[in-house]
Design goal:
The complex is a heterodimer.
Chain A (H helix, E strand, L loop, with lengths): L3 E12 L6 H16 L8 E5 L9 H5 L5 E4 L6 H14 L5 E9 L16 H5 L5 H16 L3 H15 L13 H6 L2 E3 L2 E2 L8 E10 H7 L4 E10 L11 E3 L6 H13 L8 E4 L4 H10 L8 H6 L16 H5 L3 H17 L12 E8 L3 E9 L1
Parallel strand pairs in A: 2-3, 2-4, 10-11
Antiparallel strand pairs in A: 1-7, 1-8, 4-7, 5-6, 8-12, 11-12
Helix pairs in contact in A: 3-13, 6-10
Chain B lengths: L5 E3 L5 E8 L5 E2 L11 E5 L3 E10 L20 E8 L3 E7 L11 E10 L5 E9 L6
Parallel strand pairs in B: 7-9
Antiparallel strand pairs in B: 1-2, 2-3, 2-4, 5-6, 5-8, 6-7, 8-9
Classes of the chains: A alpha/beta, B mainly beta.
Chain lengths: 381, 136
Amino acid sequence: MNDVYVIGAGIHPFGRHEGKTGLDLGVDATKLALKDGGIEWRDVQAAFGGSSASGNADAVLPRMGLTGIQFINVANGCATGGSSVLSAYWAIKAGEFDTALAVGFDKHPRGSFNPDPVRYGLPQWYGETGMMLTTQFFAMKIQRYMHDHGISAQTLADVAAKAFTNGSRTPHAWRRTPMDVNTVLNSRMISDPLTQYMFCSPSEGGVALILASEKKARELGRTQVKLRGAAFKTRPEHSFEVFSPLLSVERGETPTMLAARSAFENAGVGPEDIDLAQIQDTESGAEIMHMAENGFCDDGDQEQWISEGRTTIGGKLPINTDGGCIACGEPIGASGLRQIYENVLQLRGQAENRQVENARLAYSQVYGAPGLSAIAILEKQ
Amino acid sequence: MSNEIFVNDQDGKVRIIVGRSRENGQIVFPLPRGAEEADYERIELPPSGTLWTYTVQRIPPKNPPFVGINSPDEYQPFAVGYVRLGDEVMIEGRIAGDPDSLEIGMPMDCVTISFPTADGAEMATYAFTPANGSKL
């Protein structure tokens, strides 16, 4: 098995970009990642990419050059980006390739997603009556979690305010203006208990990463960041997931719990070893619940962790240092790759005024419909 | 919505229909139709239960897939929740009544509702409502 390194990282800033297609954002990010990695396009041997709303990711090929490269299009909901990088990781780890590209981009219309029930194997009436909304699922999951574990609305707002503070320091973030807790709490209620500014919004952006074997990384002099472990899991029985007309009374583990356990085992480290984390914050409640599902704290401890500022930059475990989905928005194909991009910058010491000091291990977790989670653990060499 | 989703009995009780797999005992909702239906035992759930979690859809869902009236000035927010019906499962559905009166754990009854659609028709569906005697 080969060790795998992230040798190049490129991003097109997230937000709204009039006059540019989703594909343009993906091509821009790919060029930046190649330049950052000191590698030519013709030397990339395999590619994995995804886009939910902007066409096929392999449409980057005519723009980059038709080199005959193996390109696999990836479609895995909100975890598409995470799935692309995992595919590249396994391809290199297995020794099939020395270099691989993971690319994701998207450009979504404004407002919430409106998926077709039939594509999820659900009856049409589920959508016709008004239940085919991811926002309802996130709201109902945190509503029950608050009831069971004593999380307050104040804590939901603290998470969003932290996201906007971190986003204000991040050149690739969409929302770059800090927002105080009261503004978050008093913004329009979208789906109780979640207000407008606790939710992320669909947005636009592109990210590309170049992965390489140890041999190739040494040859290029780019061994700063190693991809130490990764895992991907779909939902097990008894997990509460989006778009579920029926749930069993028995409650069980989530895909994130399974993936976290597997990633930590794969990397040979534990949650206590992690120095910073990017975790799925589709809304504030998701960040809170994912803190526990990833193993960073026990259920209910988040109230204390967050009030003490442990997840802010400078705290014990800074979370979503670039403002996460809440400040960056969510272009589905690119979102999981953005988390890894941010971790690469942090481990290289290139995160400027949001830099986490002395970070060695950086964690990322992306969650998507209909219930899957992808994790990557990076290590500074 | 067809009567394969729920039955509205003469006693005024609404019972949601689920299927129990003859192979592994797992319960599914809705009950599959067509050739697969033979693999499931048809079961009517109890007509009452308790509220496990809920939210309120404060902003209009997009059409498609939502067929109700969703223009910003006419839209009526509604609650959605999971109600535990019996010992094994919880069913997701719309909740009739005042969304601001809901509390986790409160007793709920299965009912039917009908709401106006954007094209001037009516759509009927099963729903839940706080049981008699609880606050509404």
